[in-house]
Each structure stands twice: as C-alpha cells, then as structure tokens.
Amino acid sequence: MNISISLLAIGQVWFFNLLLIPLLYLILKKVDWRGLIDDSGLQHRVFAATLVLFIIWQINISLSLDVAIHFLGITTLSLMFGWPLALLSALIAQSGFLLFSQGQADSFAVNYFVNAVVPIAFTWRLHLWIESKKPQNPFVFIMGTGFFSCLFSSILVAVSAGIMLYLGGQFIFGLGVLDYISYLPLFIFPEAVVNGMFISGFSILQPHWVQAFNDERYFQEPVTGEHKVEKEVHKALDLDAQENQNDNLNKALRKEDLDKYKPPKDWQNEALEKINKDAKLNEKDNKEDD
CA–CA separation, 228 vs 248, rounded Å? Predict the structure, then answer.
C-alpha cells in the first residue's frame, strides 16, 4: 500500500525518516556481501526477484486519489533470501516509485516500513517460531510459513496502514470499520495463495533456493527414537517381496530341472562293477579256450 504525504502528519513523516537511518545501517551490516558477490546464481535470483517485485508494485488499485493498494510478494522474498536481503531488495523496489514518479520522497520511509519492514519482520519471526518446533513434514513449512504467515502479515500491513491514515487525520473514512474489513479478503487471500504456491514450488523443485527451507530435515524419513518408522505395505504392493518371491521360485524350478536330468546316484560305481564283471567273464572264457 502506498500512502501520499498529504494524508500523513509531519510528525509521522519525520519519525519514520529518522527510523530509516539505523535500519539502513542494520541492512548494510547484516547482508552477507561476500556470499552475494561469490555466488553468481544468488545474484541473478536476487536481481530477478527485485525486478519482479518492482513490476508487481507498479500494478496497483487506487482506493482514493492518495491511497493505492498492490500485491506485496514479501513472504516469498523473505523465505528465499532471508530478512537482510529481503529488506535490501524491497528497498530497491520501493525506490523505483521515485524514479517513475509514482511515489513521493517525503513518504518513502513510511511506505517502506508499511510495505516491507512490517511483513518481513512478522514472516521471519513466525518462521523462527515454527523452526523451533523442528517439524519434519514439509507441508508444515509450506502452509505455516508460506501461506499463513503471508495471510497474517498482509492483515498486519492493512491494519498498520489504517492506523497511519487514522493518525494522520487527513484521510476521510467514508465507510464503517466492517465495510473496510470486508474489502480485505479481496486482496489478502489471493496474496496468501500466490505466495504459498511459489513457496511450495521452489521448496520442492529448487529447495536450495529457499534459505528458510531445511531440506535435510524435511526430506528425510521420519524417525521415532533411535529407530526409523517402518511403513506397513500390503503384499500386493510390496515390489521387493514379490521380486524375492519370484527369485526363489526361479531357483526352485532350475533345481527341479537339474534334478530331472541328473544321473542316478552311484551310477559310476555300478558302471565300474559291470565293467569288472565283464572283464572277469572275458578272462574266464579265454582260459577255457586255452
């Protein structure tokens, strides 16, 4: 959401402008610049994500002459690169509004905190809480960190923007609170669905792209204590058992065939006895002839 300077109090503007200075120092300090410089693939992904974020932030819907809403895409950015790079990427995307005259320099800090800092901080905090439970099912990561964190962070962004407009005292709330709340599902739920789809796709197809995804734990076989959980498989579906059974059957058939054509036992002894007997008879006959 982008809020015009005309709807903000001067105290709000100066407060967030001053708060932006230590935040910029924190970003510069926490970003792994050496890792970013050495990894060309990471550079390309960060550049592409920043460009996509800049483009989707240009596509907005004007609620009034001075307020515009747009998709955030912050959850995917946070989980893919971590909060320091996500803040840096969002800072560059927010600066694009100034270059294309769709934003105002005076309200830059306010909009940056509303659109980026608030959802990134909430998403990363929820991610750390989920990781502390050490889940082994990737569905927990996809739904918990990918979908629900985006859902709740988008609600938090809408509430924060509403509070900023209320404190500014210039925005005319022509509708009741329930009327404004009824508009939230129109862009919050699609936001959560789209981010969940991207996170699920990247986590399964390219898990090394998602910094927050621990593929070594999520993709290993579940364990109970020191022993792995053995899955019960029906005999008709157990291919290994069927293959072993077929091997045993083939061995039995081969043995039966060999036994069928094998000469009887002691055939050598019987043959030798017959030869000796014939030799003795021949010898006896020869003596009689003499």
Answer: 28
